[in-house]
Design goal:
eight-stranded mixed β-sheet, single chain
Length: 1993
């Protein structure tokens, strides 16, 4: 199939349907989504039209499929005989000369281009051939793959893989080794006459120059380079050609063919096959995609799927972000092929089909353009070919961003092409141009055009014009369950479209070319000179461009940002282009053409070559105030003069409070103190009681996420896919992969160390382990990672019992494909290591990707199943704290929320004075990169602010005008914060400078200024270089050690977290943050110099994520609505919360309570007013506000040289537009509960009710009512430019003394570049921030322009499905190779994705997950075993030793001499009646125990499973697969149902049983013929023996435990062959068969559906005896051997027997118990020489206490047996189990078996362990009424009633009611028997439980039975249950009864009851009353049981 189009269409359709199906199932709780295949094949799709299809397309399809064949090896052939060798002809004799082929129609496969070959023998002409574009260079001479792939254009032969071979074929006749560089000389193209002519020379060597590429990766399939090399100036190109590709068909095209467009001319190509026009002007999707075939072996990265790549994209420039989202992600752009009528293809209007005439002339770029205009214009290609640029082309940039946007907006989605001719048409060319003009007109003077916005405008316009049709086509496509997700939205407003410019209504006829110029002119006229339109007066694009350049040089476009050129010549297609001429816009667009790496290289280049020195020198000059260096040199380092700025900043309360010394003195003293940290550290009183570090603790929400992770792992294990067998692992090992940042590495090690997870996993023994030990578990993803992961894989393969978890933290960082990455870049490692086949196939390696930005891993080709994604949950729902967190996450959406309130300074803001200074310098230095300029300005601002705030510069009051208000505030806050705390805690200022070179320069500059000002010990300046370890001065290290109480002399801080409370400036460098967490002391996040070029969602959110913060939750009253949930980072519930309405009670702008952060609010305005009226300073004085920059500047300008500010107007008078001001919320000043516990609570001086809410502000002034602030001071306090950290310490309020303690309740402030601020704070039509609609990451592309917008109400899962449907990875993305023909769900089964917002605690969550996973595995390897000591043992030891302790088998003769132990010792029977035994003395019993309670309180032990354990259905391992027969890899085992009939006297009728016998087990049975009637179950002979075979069939009766019953005996049997039969009730047959398809089932008859365990055992025993007889007959008939030789034993096993043990006797160590297999136990018992003598054998129940008393010396005993029985069905033929019994049936059976004289033997050397299974089993009985609709609890007294009475009948078997009644009410029935062991109740022929307080004496009425001696025994009662004919009056007369003893006679009906009384002459000795007759509470049809009671006379 190759990449033939038909295949692609199906595959895409499949992917789409699969996505819809997955999403529907995720969203729906009840509705079963429509199956994928029925959606695919059952929908009615009309076949697409074929009327216009060109014939040669079929050939192309064939070529495409053939091109996937393996490379043809090159063999040098001699010229074949008779072949043509003429110059200019190929060996087939076809003409190749350009002169001959110029007018021929040539077929060029996609991806190939026509090239002219220079032949040494033909100087006058070129030879024509087609060459794969990948092997040709771009216009810069780069990016050509080595090797060759070409076709002969003469004879049509294809697939030449070597140029040498090709040169032979075309008769080049070379004397030297053929080189393609020498001979492939020229591009060929068609001119406007359609003639093939020589074009530009192929550029085989790169040229220098400053030309750059803009949309270099234009959707992986449309690579367009954007500049015109000088050597292309020789000709004018012809038509710009290309064929159309359906956007949604991209996913299956590996990388669709890409067109290389050289600057302004299209690569020439030959005629295009006619397009299939299925509607007027509407393109159909018939573009052909042939693969070029594989390149030579050395070309890495080629694969059959990706052979359509034109260029390896890693060698191209990655498009900057604005371009990326704008660039077409789809192959909706241009594929190579030609287009004779481009406009007809793209426009809805009918056009003439005449080809475009080429521009008459090329355009010369004027010299000195950049120097004259101080800008580098950007030319956006539009419609039609751009003319060739010549001359000074290096100073013009050409971009195809706009062109690709046009093309993608005209590529209709496939959904609208499925229905034959359609009214839906794409936007016309004219409409696109007009909308473009509209968009440019409304852009602000500083705004840069965003293609994303324009694309949305196009989509909006198109949707509005086709709304009804779109809705019509949406119906069949979108399942109802997710209609809201993918419905095409029609937003009410167009982003970026002014409302007064209305779109042409859809009812009007289409826009015509003649209308376009004047409509566009009309639109452009509304903005003056901002947009200039060249339309009417120009005849060609060339003319328009020439005019534009002329006007630029003449300065006539000084105020113009955009020139739009429109050419509408009659009879020709409309052409257009846009020239950007605004200085700011040109710079931004130029810089966005760099990839991030290239941008950093350019900055390094500018710094290293000294280009930036002029700028630095310029910035150093302060005009009239001198220059910085001289001022610094004059700095008075020792001066104690206080900065006027600082003293004027002193808070008003301080002035009013201080009476002992002036403010100046106090601050001077503070600054003196701060000079010497060592001195201050020595003072014991200088301790801060509020300091606490909490980053080590695990929070409740982290525990919840860890459990979520665990449940997903369990879900993988529980699925039937066998992808993870948790039961086979006994331990967890892990490796955490982190980006190559030393701080991130150490931070992960720190978390790992403090989590204790290694100790939990058993990897570490002792507590104090070296740092290196922890570092073994964390790996930096650099070159060293290869060896570490290789060793892990090795270990995984060698140790299959260890589950290895690979945690890939910060997973969005390196997603590069290994085949596209160079080794030195360090990228592609994740792909190489984690996606390798060895990791993928290892069944014990689980990969967990952890990231804050999962979007890049959620594409159409993702490896992660949507079911394996775990999203961080929202901690608050409707403001209810779901996890009882003490913190509240403050992330990007909360930052955004703070910008939407006009009442206070938002936490996120921009600095307008910095922006204006930077933009002025950008105009002055046009050649410098803006990052260099902005960083220089910013650092200059910081230096000047330091000089101004330090007070060390004379006349420093003049310095403030050379810095910005924001910077001055940051620096002042930094300097004063540490002075306010006794321990000198301060806060951190983060300065983000992506370029390392700039960061180093900034660090050097700031350090020098700090040194010259003598502030070395006031704060630290840290360079955050990801490649280096953290480096802190020794003074500060000592300070941190003192705070953290670290004694280790060698300790140094390795992470930013450990810098908690250190006053410092952290300069964080690196292209992107690599997961470094910041301390809670971060107060300012200065992002003013981050790049504005790369507008992807991940890039933006990464930078903003640095400011993410966990705010202490105690500071916020519970009634206040919290900040909105994170709409940018993935929130679990909604992208954006709906609970962010602003507080309405806060109208006054200066109220500190109306903070938009909503961390603190006061809904009761009245209370607020009363509070502020009594203490105005609470409201105005205590909360710091920061004024708007404009206000502060005006204030600074008006300020005199005095030390205090002039009073400024009250902030309430500010216009809202200027209110960038922030009122610090009171919450920042609030005490935390833990702080209050350390300090005595403050006196509440204010009796107002709000005093509870504001303890700190009230306590700032000791007497608020008596000391109000003067008005002037109040105003001054309000206008000061400091934050809360600037408050001076107050002696009266220790809580406010530490700036750090206040700061932890307040998120950091973020300063952004203006351009980013505008983008981030803007919303799109769905109400989401604009940045959410940006492309998620640089390495993915949009699948179509016609995608819906993200919705505000989407959950994280829906957001993930959105990206999975609408994004496709580029070929440089590691997932791009994750495609399999015909499959789209190529998910890795053991791969999970954990996503959560930045700095929320994901590391702690996954570390805790590792711990609980380990605990769970240990728990899975363990099982709860009943561990109870045997009961009812007498204290005295028996003196007789019957068998030697080490006797292997019992001796029957000795066994007969041993007394039978009637006492029941099994602890599960501690609540039943004891059996009387003459020698036994029982202890005094306590209170009776209810049987229902026993189950709950039984003692268990957790025991590790041995290798011989029995398992339930959850166990999957390799060895068990065939045994279980339940595996998708195997065909489900077939089984057949066989009926088996036999008769039994007790049942009175024939019983029909059913056997379900799997095919694999049929050899255990004999049939009348193959597949015929079942005759018997085969039994072995007694003499048979095999080491791998068990003779005895095992029967396991079970009910309600189809999942939990331990029926998997494979390991227990140690692999031995055995016959195991499950005995199930009829109604449970299907479910047991489903879970155990390879097990034999014996199905009980229907009448036994309600029966108990007695019936099951009865039927098993009787069936076994019947089968034994049949087998004896069969043996006799077959062999004539003795019938008695057939093995007569069966095993009756409980379904909870999990393990077996044996006791070894060791002379030295005593007894040792060890686990053995069931095979060992059974074979040992089967080998017993005298086994046939025994009626019943068994083993003891295991107890951790071993043997009790003296029994350890006796290996065998006679007594009761339970749970695991070896029954001789031959010997016990006449003793049946009681089929009616529900309880104690085994006690009853053993007593009757013993009384019949059969030997019962317990093997004490073996023990069985019974697992506690809380589900199902025969002991679970529900007693309910017949009236099921009336829920009633029924007590035991209601189980019986008087006959014929009206009573509540019960729907429970009569026998069960009777047994339960006797158990619970025997004290009333047998009053004399209660706790009377010496006078038991005589029970004849049966044992019934009369409760633990009554003792029973069992006697058998059978002749020759073995009974105890009852001589002299007085009985307190007589129990006759179904007395048979063996019970006679004479038999009863042998026994003596106490007077008043109770008689109880039980019969099946009233008549038999009377007959029994009469027959046994009971009335002679017993007195009866009519009222003593009872029946069980059953209806007549349920056959109640009757009983009669009487008293002994």
């Amino acid at each position: 199939m190759g990449n033939s189009y038909a295949g692609q269409l199906r595959t895409t359709r499949f992917e789409e349907v699969l996505h819809n199906s997955i999403e529907a199932s995720l969203r729906s709780n009840t509705v079963v989504p429509r199956p994928v295949f029925s959606q695919l094949y059952l929908e009615t799709e009309q076949p697409s039209a074929h009327d216009g299809r060109a014939e040669n397309e079929d050939e192309d399809d064939e070529d495409g499929s053939a091109s996937n064949s393996p490379p043809i090896p090159y063999q040098m052939k001699p010229p074949p005989e008779g072949c043509c060798t003429t110059d200019g002809f190929c060996q087939a004799g076809r003409d190749l000369r350009l002169s001959s082929l110029a007018s021929e129609s040539l077929e060029v496969p996609p991806g190939f281009m026509l090239v002219g070959i220079k032949s040494p023998s033909l100087s006058e002409t070129l030879l024509v051939c087609a060459v794969d574009r990948r092997f040709l260079p771009d216009e810069r001479g780069r990016n050509a793959l080595l090797g060759f792939s070409g076709n002969c254009m003469g004879c049509g032969e294809k697939g030449f893989r070597y140029f040498t071979e090709f040169s032979n074929h075309i008769n080049l006749k070379l004397s030297t080794q053929p080189k393609k560089q020498k001979h492939l000389k020229y591009h060929l193209y068609r001119n406007n006459q359609g003639m093939l002519v020589k074009g530009a020379p192929i550029c085989w060597r790169g040229h220098d120059g400053r030309m750059r590429q803009m949309g270099s990766i234009l959707a992986e399939n449309h690579v367009t380079s954007d500049e015109q090399p000088p050597n292309l100036a020789s000709h004018t190109p012809g038509s710009y050609t290309g064929s159309h590709v359906d956007p949604t068909a991209l996913p299956q095209i590996a990388d669709p063919p890409q067109t290389l467009t050289n600057g302004n001319h299209a690569v020439p190509s030959v005629t295009q096959p006619p397009l299939n026009q299925s509607g007027p002007g509407r393109p159909s999707v018939t573009g052909t995609h042939a693969n070029a075939g594989p390149p030579k072996k050395r070309h890495k990265g080629w694969s059959p799927e990706s052979s359509a790549n034109s260029l390896p994209e890693s060698t191209l420039k990655t498009p900057p972000s604005s371009s990326v989202s704008a660039t077409l992600s789809m192959s909706s752009a241009v594929t190579h092929g030609t287009r004779s009528e481009p406009a007809a293809l793209l426009s809805s209007s009918q056009r003439s089909s005449a080809p475009l005439s080429p521009p008459e002339l090329s355009v010369t770029v004027p010299d000195q353009l950049l120097h004259t205009c101080r800008l580098q214009p950007v030319v956006f290609k539009g419609h039609g070919p751009l003319p060739q640029l010549t001359g000074n082309v290096g100073e013009v940039l050409v971009s195809s961003l706009l062109q690709s946007c046009y093309l993608s907006s005209q590529a209709l989605p496939r959904v609208y092409q499925h229905y034959g001719p359609s009214p839906i048409q794409p936007l016309s060319t004219e409409m696109q141009i007009l909308l473009t003009v509209y968009y440019l007109v409304q852009l602000g003077p500083d705004q840069v055009p965003l293609i994303e916005d324009l694309e949305q405008i196009f989509m909006r316009s198109w949707r509005e014009s086709h709304l009804s049709e779109i809705r019509q086509y949406q119906q069949p496509q979108t399942p109802a369950s997710h209609g809201r997700h993918f419905v095409v939205e029609t937003p009410s407003t167009l982003p970026g479209l002014p409302q007064h410019l209305s779109l042409p209504p859809q009812s009007q006829p289409p826009l015509t070319p003649s209308q376009l110029p004047w409509l566009a002119q009309l639109a452009a006229s509304s903005c003056g000179e901002g947009v200039v339109l060249l339309g009417d007066q120009i005849k060609s694009l060339a003319q328009g461009l020439q005019q534009t350049f002329s006007r630029l040089m003449e300065g006539r476009l000084e105020n113009t940002n955009y020139v739009v050129i429109i050419v509408t010549a009659p009879g020709q297609e409309t052409q257009s282009c846009v020239v950007v001429t605004g200085k700011h816009q040109c710079r931004a667009l130029a810089e966005s053409m760099y990839s991030p790496t290239e941008g950093l290289k350019e900055i390094n280049h500018q710094l290293s070559t000294g280009v930036a020195q002029e700028l630095i020198h310029f910035c150093n000059s302060l005009g009239q105030d001198g220059d910085m260096d001289s001022l610094l040199d004059s700095a008075t380092v020792d001066s104690n003069e206080l900065s006027p700025l600082l003293s004027s900043q002193e808070s008003a309360e301080d002035k009013s409070l201080k009476s002992t010394h002036s403010p100046k003195d106090s601050l001077t003293q503070c600054s003196k103190d701060s000079h010497s940290p060592k001195e201050r550290a020595s003072s014991p009183k200088d301790a801060c009681s509020e300091y606490s570090v909490e980053w080590r603790e695990v929070r409740p929400i982290q525990l919840a996420v860890a459990r979520k992770l665990l449940s997903h792992v369990c879900a993988i294990a529980d699925s039937s896919t066998q992808n993870l067998d948790l039961g086979s692992f006994d331990r967890v090992s892990f490796l955490i992969l982190v980006p190559p940042s030393e701080v991130t590495f150490q931070q992960t090690v720190l978390h790992l160390r403090s989590s204790g997870v290694l100790q939990e996993l058993g990897s570490l023994d002792q507590e104090s382990v070296s740092q290196g030990e922890f570092e073994r578990y964390v790996v930096k993803m650099d070159q060293s990672a290869q060896a570490r992961i290789d060793s892990l894989i090795q270990e995984a393969y060698s140790n299959t019992y260890t589950l290895h978890i690979l945690v890939h933290d910060h997973a969005h960082w390196d997603i590069s494909s290994a085949s596209y990455s160079t080794s030195d870049s360090g990228l592609g490692l994740v792909d190489k290591l984690l996606n390798s086949r060895r990791v993928r196939d290892a069944p014990n390696i689980l990969i967990l990707h952890v990231t804050s930005f999962p979007f890049t891993l959620q594409t159409q080709y993702t490896r992660i199943s949507p079911y394996n994604e775990i999203h961080w949950p929202s901690a608050f729902s409707n403001d209810v704290d779901l996890y009882h967190e003490r913190t509240r996450y403050f992330g990007v959406s909360e930052l955004l929320e703070s910008t939407r309130s006009g009442s206070s300074l938002p936490l996120m803001r921009h600095d307008s004075s910095f922006e204006s200074m930077a933009s002025a310098l950008e105009e002055r230095f046009p050649k410098l990169h803006s990052a260099v300029i902005r960083t220089t300005v910013l650092i200059q601002h910081y230096c000047i602010a330091l000089m101004a705030a330090s007070g060390k510069i004379g006349g420093s009051h003049n310095l403030h005008k050379h810095t910005s208000v924001e910077t001055l505030e940051i620096v002042q806050s930094l300097l004063t914060a540490a002075q306010q705390c006794p321990a000198h805690h301060g806060h951190m200022v983060l300065l983000r400078i992506p370029s390392l070179a700039l960061a180093v320069w900034a660090h050097r500059r700031l350090t020098r200024v700090r040194r010259q000002l003598g502030l070395e010990e006031s704060f630290e300046i840290i360079l955050g270089n990801p490649n280096q370890a953290l480096n802190i001065g020794q003074t500060f290290t000592d300070q941190i050690k003192k705070w953290l109480q670290i004694q280790d002399n060698e300790w140094v801080p390795r992470t930013y977290l450990e810098l908690e409370a250190l006053p410092c400036i952290l300069i964080l460098s690196g292209a992107e943050p690599l997961g470094e967490s910041l301390p809670r002391s971060l107060k300012y996040c200065d992002l003013r110099v981050i790049s504005c070029s790369y507008l992807q969602r991940t890039t933006l959110e990464q930078e903003l994520g640095l400011a993410a913060y966990l705010v202490k939750e105690e500071s916020r009253p519970p009634h206040n609505p919290g900040p909105g949930s994170d709409l940018l980072e993935s929130d679990a519930d909604k992208l954006s919360s709906t609970d962010n309405e602003e507080e309405e009670g806060q109208e006054n702008e200066d109220s500190p309570l109306s903070s938009s952060q909503q961390l603190q609010s006061c809904p009761d305005t009245g209370a607020l007013d009363s509070l502020s009226s009594t203490s105005p300073n609470v409201q105005k004085g205590t909360v710091d506000t920061v004024q708007s920059p404009s206000q502060a500047q005006s204030q600074f300008k008006s300020q005199t040289s005095s030390q205090s500010f002039q009073a400024t107007p009250h902030p309430q008078t500010q216009p809202p537009a200027q209110s960038h001001s922030q009122t610090q919320p009171i919450s920042q000043l609030q005490t935390q509960p833990q702080v209050q516990s350390l300090n005595p609570p403050l006196p509440q001086t204010n009796p107002q009710p709000q005093a509870q809410t504001f303890p700190q502000p009230l306590s700032q002034t000791p007497n608020p009512q008596t000391q109000p602030l003067p008005p002037a001071q109040s105003h001054r306090q309000h206008s000061k430019s400091t934050s809360s950290g600037s408050l001076s310490p107050l002696s009266s309020s220790p809580h406010l003394s530490c700036s750090w303690a206040r700061g932890v309740s307040r998120p950091p402030s973020v300063l952004l570049p203006r351009a980013l601020y505008d983008i981030i704070t803007a919303s799109d039509s769905s109400g989401l921030p604009r940045c959410t609609s940006f492309l998620p990451h640089m390495s993915v592309v949009w699948a179509s322009s016609f995608r819906p917008l993200l919705s505000k109400m989407m959950t994280c899962t829906e957001q993930s499905l959105y990206y999975r449907q609408w994004t496709v990875p580029r070929s440089l993305h590691m997932d791009s190779s994750n495609r399999t023909e015909g499959r789209s769900d190529n998910f890795h089964p053991r791969r999970l994705l954990l996503s959560g917002p930045p700095q929320v605690g994901k590391t702690g969550a996954y570390l805790h997950f590792l711990g609980i996973l380990s605990r769970m595995l240990i728990r899975l390897m363990e099982v709860d075993i009943y561990d109870e000591e045997d009961i009812n043992y007498t204290a005295q030891a028996e003196g007789v030793q019957y068998h030697p302790p080490n006797a292997p088998w019992p001796n029957p003769d000795i066994m007969r001499t041993m007394p039978f132990d009637y006492t029941i010792h099994d602890p599960k029977y501690d609540d039943i009646s004891a059996v009387y035994c003459p020698g036994h003395r029982t202890n005094a019993e306590g209170n009776p125990v209810r049987q229902e309670d026993v189950y709950l309180r039984r003692r268990t032990s957790r025991i590790k499973l041995s290798k011989y354990a029995a398992y339930n259905t959850y166990h999957h391992c390799e060895q068990c697969h065939q045994y279980l027969g339940f595996n998708p890899r195997y065909q489900m085992y077939e089984s057949t149902l066989h009926a088996f009939t036999f008769t039994h006297l007790l049942l009175g009728e024939e019983i029909q049983l059913y056997f379900i016998i799997p095919k694999s087990k049929e050899h255990y049975f004999s049939f009348s013929q193959p597949g015929g009637q079942l005759e018997s179950m085969r039994l072995p002979l007694t003499a048979d023996w095999s080491p791998d075979c068990i003779k005895t069939p095992i029967f396991t009766p079970t009910t309600g435990r189809h999942e939990h019953g331990l029926f998997n005996l494979y390991h227990a049997m140690d692999g031995a062959s055995h016959l195991h039969i499950l005995v199930v009730k009829e109604y449970e047959m299907a479910v047991y068969k489903k879970y155990w398809p390879n097990h034999i089932m014996l199905v009980l008859p229907t009448v036994f559906n309600g029966a108990g365990i007695g019936a099951a055992h009865f039927l098993i025993k009787e069936l076994s005896y019947h089968n034994l007889e049949l087998e004896r007959s069969r043996r006799l008939e077959g062999s004539g051997g003795p019938a008695g030789d057939v093995w007569p034993f069966i095993v009756l096993s409980d379904d909870s027997c999990v393990m077996f043990n044996t006791v070894d006797l060791d002379a030295r160590n005593g007894t040792m118990e060890r686990a053995v297999s069931l095979k060992h136990v059974l074979q040992h018992m089967e080998e017993c020489p005298d086994m046939a003598h025994y009626g019943l054998c068994g083993i003891r129940k295991w107890s951790s206490r071993g043997f009790t008393g003296n029994r350890q010396r006796e290996p065998f005993s006679r007594g009761h047996l339970h749970d695991f029985l070896l029954l001789n069905v031959d010997r016990s033929q006449n003793i049946q189990y009681d089929q009616n019994r529900f309880t104690c049936h085994d006690v009853d059976f053993t007593l009757r078996l013993h009384s019949a004289g059969l030997l019962v033997c317990k093997f004490n050397s073996f023990s069985v362990m019974k697992k506690q299974i809380a589900i199902g089993g025969y002991r679970t009985f529900i007693i309910k009424t017949k009236m099921t609709d009336v829920p009633t609890s029924v007590g035991p007294s209601q189980y019986i009633c008087a006959p014929d009475s009206k009573h509540l009948f019960l729907a429970t078997p009569a026998q069960l009611l009777l047994e339960k009644y006797l158990q619970h009410t025997s004290q009333k029935l047998f009053p004399l028997s209660t706790r009377n062991y010496t006078h038991p109740v005589l029970s004849v022929d049966c044992y019934l439980n009369l409760g633990p307080e009554v003792t029973l004496c069992f006697v058998s009425s059978r002749p020759h039975s073995v009974n105890i001696s009852t001589t002299g025994l007085l009985f307190s009662g007589l129990l006759l249950c179904f007395a048979d004919s063996f019970v006679t009056p004479g038999f009863l007369k042998k026994f003596t009864f106490l007077k008043g003893a109770t008689l109880c006679v039980i019969s099946a009906d009233r008549s038999s009851l009377r007959q029994t009384v009469g027959r046994l002459e009971l009335e002679e000795e017993w007195r009866f009353r009519l009222s003593d007759e009872f029946q069980t509470a059953n209806a007549k049809e349920d056959r109640p049981l009757f009983f009669l009671t009487g008293k002994h006379i």
